[in-house]
């Protein structure tokens, strides 16, 4: 995946931030995007992929901001879209928000993050644990020190986790109290007839985790009825081979909050299904029970 430039466009159609790699791309490249934006009924209706004579424009819409990535060669659009979502998620973690005002207020940190996340147009460091070791999140103290000393706040030491087999987890993590929380969040879409009978229904769910465990924990999560799960996607920490062979989630979790898994369940065949799951680890006691998938 090669990204030449990224433009940040607000709801008024103004480009309030741009970042270029390799070479500077003129703002006029966004003209066709603006035409599509004018024709769209809502901001969400703007086509995510627009082809010009020379470039491909790939965009997402979040927090009343359009992110438009410009690439000169044909790439897999979902990779670019996922990267831009990762950028916005990182901003939200750093600034507690990813609105236009939050980005403008922390413009120096924004450029530092974009410089680390993409190297010459290719994704480099996208894990939050690595980024927080490289670039300290903005605080009043950090800003004051930067103004006095003139230092940019970027670490000169390469994070050890960046060269390890588990780059999503920082090294030397220690907690006095070890704990892990798992939240199953689901959206249910259903069609119900006049008699109250469910004609069709489907579930879109995420398993959100907040893990604070010392060392390098190795966790596993098993489902009693994993065949109900469809269109699953995982955090990079999940070992795909074990899921494919045994339908067990085995992973070394990142430190802090992350989305372990997203899934889809069709309830046309299983109108009322139960999907209890359990978490197991050799070093910690960890249990997660979801008794009412679809409830």
The total count of helices amounts to: 7
Terminal-residue CA separation? 40 Å
What is the 3D shape?
A: globular
Query: What is the typical, i.e. mean, pLDDT?
Result: 84
Name the strands of the widest sheet in spatial order: 2-1-5-4-3
Q: Give helix % range.
A: 10-25%
Q: What does this 3D model show about the protein?
A:
With 295 residues, the protein is of the alpha+beta class. The protein has 7 helices and 14 strands. The strands form 4 sheets. It has a 5-stranded antiparallel sheet with strand order 2-1-5-4-3, with helices on one face. A 4-stranded antiparallel sheet has the order 8-9-13-11, with no helix packed on it. It is globular, with a radius of gyration of 22 Å. The two termini are 40 Å apart.
Which key terms come to mind for this protein?
alpha+beta, 5-stranded antiparallel β-sheet, 4-stranded antiparallel β-sheet, globular, disordered C terminus
């Amino acid at each position: 995946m090669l990204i030449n430039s990224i433009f940040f466009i607000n709801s008024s159609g103004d480009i309030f931030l741009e970042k270029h790699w390799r070479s500077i791309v003129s703002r006029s490249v966004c003209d066709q995007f603006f035409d599509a934006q004018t024709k769209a009924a809502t901001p969400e209706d703007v086509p995510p992929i627009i082809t010009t004579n020379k470039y491909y424009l790939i965009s997402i819409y979040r927090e009343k901001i359009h992110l438009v990535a410009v690439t000169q060669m044909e790439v897999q659009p979902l990779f670019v879209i996922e990267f831009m979502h990762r950028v916005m998620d990182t901003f939200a973690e750093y600034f507690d928000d990813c609105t236009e005002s939050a980005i403008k207020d922390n413009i120096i940190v924004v450029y530092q993050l974009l410089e680390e996340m993409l190297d010459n147009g290719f994704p480099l460091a996208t894990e939050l644990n690595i980024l927080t070791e490289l670039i300290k999140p903005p605080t009043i103290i950090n800003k004051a020190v930067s103004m006095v000393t003139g230092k940019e706040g970027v670490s000169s030491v390469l994070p050890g986790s960046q060269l390890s087999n588990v780059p999503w987890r920082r090294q030397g993590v220690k907690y006095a109290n070890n704990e892990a929380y798992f939240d199953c969040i689901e959206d249910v879409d259903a069609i119900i007839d006049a008699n109250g009978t469910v004609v069709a229904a489907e579930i879109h769910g995420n398993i959100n985790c907040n893990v604070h465990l010392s060392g390098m924990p190795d966790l596993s999560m098993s489902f009693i009825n994993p065949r109900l799960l469809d269109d699953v996607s995982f955090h990079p920490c999940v070992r795909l081979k074990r899921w494919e062979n045994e339908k067990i989630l085995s992973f070394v979790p990142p430190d802090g909050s992350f989305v372990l898994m997203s899934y889809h369940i069709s309830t046309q065949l299983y109108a009322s299904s139960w999907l209890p799951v359990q978490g197991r680890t050799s070093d910690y006691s960890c249990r997660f029970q979801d008794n009412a998938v679809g409830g």
